[in-house]
């Protein structure tokens, strides 16, 4: 369906239904809010490898922005997005208006993200994940894909989409794409465009925090020490940490202090007025093991290195 001219751009439901009817074989979707960058491009390649047709949605979803957030300022770069999609062999770009997505106005019936949606990112952005899941479910209904590809950087979003698909028996395979990073390790994000030079330099504290956590985890440090090592790296001028925690990879609850095995560092910070998030998969090496009850903990408990 892709021609030399690039993907078919569709702005409305009826046009998309016609394009969808012409697709045979497996269909993959990558949902985006536009301002596509290398991170999105890697998701498009993953989608391309898994399906016969790739659909990209571009929609800045008002439901997931709170009062005072950057809904109006969010970058809208459709021509550049189409060029990225053309380079990655995308078949159809669905870039609907808000009235096409929500023809009856702001939906009064929504998906509730539940308790997981209220922690971490959700604690700072009440209702954010309800808005995300509502539009994700709606777009899944419109696109009817076999595969939906989401980035690992937005780990809580990914976990909630997986949970919604399981809880509500949505027939789609969810595939996670690895985080793509700048040369200094900063995770690619459309919001990086907001950072001026000073903020951009300060933002290097986020990947540095991940690196400190990885080192501590490799030493077999306790979970609270791993998280503290990361927090120490965020303690630099211009960075206001929001949360920085070591959590279970599936339910995103904080792991116990004596945890060994896979874990995920979740962090968010405001840098130069821009909220940035990052996530890192870690393997916490086994230490001396948890303390027998009533005794002092024998496990190695190294202190975080303060930069
Ligand atoms: O990750 C995003 O860009 C958005 O949250 C999504 C999944 C496109 C829903 O609006």
UniProtKB/TrEMBL annotation:
<dbReference type="Pfam" id="PF02569">
    <property type="entry name" value="Pantoate_ligase"/>
</dbReference>
<keyword id="KW-0067">ATP-binding</keyword>
<feature type="binding site">
    <location>
        <position position="64"/>
    </location>
    <ligand>
        <name>beta-alanine</name>
    </ligand>
</feature>
<feature type="binding site">
    <location>
        <position position="157"/>
    </location>
    <ligand>
        <name>(R)-pantoate</name>
    </ligand>
</feature>
<feature type="active site" description="Proton donor">
    <location>
        <position position="40"/>
    </location>
</feature>
<feature type="binding site">
    <location>
        <begin position="33"/>
        <end position="40"/>
    </location>
    <ligand>
        <name>ATP</name>
    </ligand>
</feature>
<keyword id="KW-0963">Cytoplasm</keyword>
<comment type="subunit">
    <text>Homodimer.</text>
</comment>
<dbReference type="InterPro" id="IPR004821">
    <property type="entry name" value="Cyt_trans-like"/>
</dbReference>
<feature type="binding site">
    <location>
        <begin position="151"/>
        <end position="154"/>
    </location>
    <ligand>
        <name>ATP</name>
    </ligand>
</feature>
<feature type="compositionally biased region" description="Low complexity">
    <location>
        <begin position="287"/>
        <end position="298"/>
    </location>
</feature>
<keyword id="KW-0566">Pantothenate biosynthesis</keyword>
<comment type="similarity">
    <text>Belongs to the pantothenate synthetase family.</text>
</comment>
<dbReference type="InterPro" id="IPR042176">
    <property type="entry name" value="Pantoate_ligase_C"/>
</dbReference>
<feature type="binding site">
    <location>
        <begin position="188"/>
        <end position="191"/>
    </location>
    <ligand>
        <name>ATP</name>
    </ligand>
</feature>
<comment type="function">
    <text>Catalyzes the condensation of pantoate with beta-alanine in an ATP-dependent reaction via a pantoyl-adenylate intermediate.</text>
</comment>
<protein>
    <recommendedName>
        <fullName>Pantothenate synthetase</fullName>
        <ecNumber>6.3.2.1</ecNumber>
    </recommendedName>
</protein>
<comment type="pathway">
    <text>Cofactor biosynthesis; (R)-pantothenate biosynthesis; (R)-pantothenate from (R)-pantoate and beta-alanine: step 1/1.</text>
</comment>
<feature type="binding site">
    <location>
        <position position="64"/>
    </location>
    <ligand>
        <name>(R)-pantoate</name>
    </ligand>
</feature>
<feature type="region of interest" description="Disordered">
    <location>
        <begin position="287"/>
        <end position="307"/>
    </location>
</feature>
<keyword id="KW-0436">Ligase</keyword>
<dbReference type="InterPro" id="IPR014729">
    <property type="entry name" value="Rossmann-like_a/b/a_fold"/>
</dbReference>
<feature type="binding site">
    <location>
        <position position="180"/>
    </location>
    <ligand>
        <name>ATP</name>
    </ligand>
</feature>
<dbReference type="GO" id="GO:0004592">
    <property type="term" value="F:pantoate-beta-alanine ligase activity"/>
</dbReference>
<dbReference type="InterPro" id="IPR003721">
    <property type="entry name" value="Pantoate_ligase"/>
</dbReference>
<keyword id="KW-0547">Nucleotide-binding</keyword>
